[in-house]
Amino acid sequence: MPRLVGVAIPDNKQIGVSLTYIYGIGLSLSRKILREAGVDETRKASSITPDELNKIKEIIEKNYRTEGELRREIMMNVRRLRDIGSWRGSRHARHLPVRGQRTRTNSRTIRGNVRKTVTSGRKPPATPT
């Protein structure tokens, strides 16, 4: 299993798809990186030579923010929004959708799969045993 930027990428998949296991690299960016490195994206990750692996690693480290650095930057951006008291920051703090989506329905992703059903306030009478 080759390791790039501290992540073990699966070697039984194509290298174009394997690179997407790194946080911050999607399919289009992985294709762009492989084109720049001169590696065919349909090859399996296990068949990549160490020279090609080093070339890919250098391109990623030199040009793109990934993994811990990117997560830290996103966390700092959200913290800044909370500190200045913006609307988006308050939505982040309450774990609600940030970009204007409706919340009456369809906000299960951010709020978690908490389904609360509303019933009448009365409990049914106890049945005699």
From TrEMBL:
GO terms for biological process: translation. Keywords: Ribonucleoprotein, Ribosomal protein, RNA-binding, rRNA-binding, tRNA-binding. Located at the top of the head of the 30S subunit, it contacts several helices of the 16S rRNA. In the 70S ribosome it contacts the 23S rRNA (bridge B1a) and protein L5 of the 50S subunit (bridge B1b), connecting the 2 subunits; these bridges are implicated in subunit movement. Contacts the tRNAs in the A and P-sites. GO terms for cellular component: cytosol; small ribosomal subunit. Transmembrane segments: none annotated. Gene3D superfamilies: 1.10.8.50, 30s ribosomal protein s13, domain 2. The keyword tRNA-binding applies. NCBIfam families: uS13_bact. It comes from Candidatus Yanofskybacteria bacterium GW2011_GWC1_48_11. Coiled coil: none annotated. GO terms for molecular function: rRNA binding; structural constituent of ribosome; tRNA binding. Part of the 30S ribosomal subunit. Forms a loose heterodimer with protein S19. Forms two bridges to the 50S subunit in the 70S ribosome. This is Small ribosomal subunit protein uS13. It comes from the Bacteria. Residues 92-129 are annotated as: Disordered.
